[in-house]
Write a structure and sequence with these properties.
By secondary structure, the protein is of the alpha+beta class. It has helices at residues 2-16, 55-66, 91-97, 140-143, 162-167, 180-185, 187-193; strands at residues 33-40, 43-50, 73-79, 83-87, 115-118, 130-133, 145-146, 149-150, 154-160, 199-206. The protein is built from seven helices and ten strands. The strands form two sheets. The chain has an eight-stranded antiparallel beta barrel. Strands 7-8 form a two-stranded antiparallel ribbon.
């Protein structure tokens, strides 16, 4: 009897375990417009996303939000009067999501204050890390050419609670990049070096 109970508990736990990634998730188109709440260690803020602005990227982000990719991650880079950057910090999860490339798209909206874009490091390299503009970074981030790719396409914009974004701890600035690999491989050790970083508990879709 005890064996059967343990077996049942194991099977329930196995059924409840969320998969890290399924390629079919990226085949779903996002709604033309959708709104979300960012629940953070500093409070909540809201954002709207528009598929027309960067269709491939918004589809990917919608899947990441639906499947809780950003749960319990860090606002690991906050550069005053420039950007807040955040994204995945689980190397296994990143490895699986990165098997599907996100093709580059043109910039259709300005990187003004509150606008949200994917970070990138070269051709077709937008994948998991996002940034929020803390000031008007247009036209610089709309037209900057890096490794042959022009600009950072905007996906959406903060619509409520920008003061929460402004309050995220910014004392480390770009220094965190010296230990970016540590964030991917040992988040606990990374936080020992940068203990004041704020966190993103989850991004929640708003039903309207």
């Amino acid at each position: 009897m005890r064996y059967l109970l343990l077996l049942c508990l194991f099977l329930v736990a196995l059924a409840c375990q969320r998969p890290l990634f399924r390629e079919k998730w990226l085949k779903e188109k996002a709604p033309e417009h959708f709104s979300v709440v960012f629940e953070t260690s500093r409070g909540n803020f809201e954002a709207d996303f528009t598929r027309q602005w960067s269709p491939l990227a918004v589809d990917r982000l919608y899947a990441q939000i639906k499947h809780r990719f950003y749960d319990h991650t860090l606002f690991y880079r906050v550069r005053p009067n420039y950007v807040v950057q955040f994204g995945g910090d689980d190397s296994l999860k990143l490895q699986k999501w990165n098997t599907v490339k996100l093709l580059d798209e043109p910039v259709l909206q300005p990187n003004e204050r509150g606008a949200i874009s994917y970070a990138r490091s070269g051709k077709d390299s937008r994948d998991n890390d996002l940034f929020i503009n803390l000031q008007n970074n247009s036209p610089r981030l709309d037209t900057l050419v890096s490794q042959g790719v022009k600009g950072y396409p905007v996906l959406g914009k903060v619509t409520k609670g920008m003061e929460v974004v402004d309050s995220l701890y910014n004392g480390y600035g770009d220094r965190v990049f010296a230990h970016y690999g540590l964030l991917m491989n040992d988040k606990k050790a990374f936080l020992e070096k940068y203990p004041r970083l704020d966190s993103l508990q989850k991004i929640r879709l708003i039903k309207k």
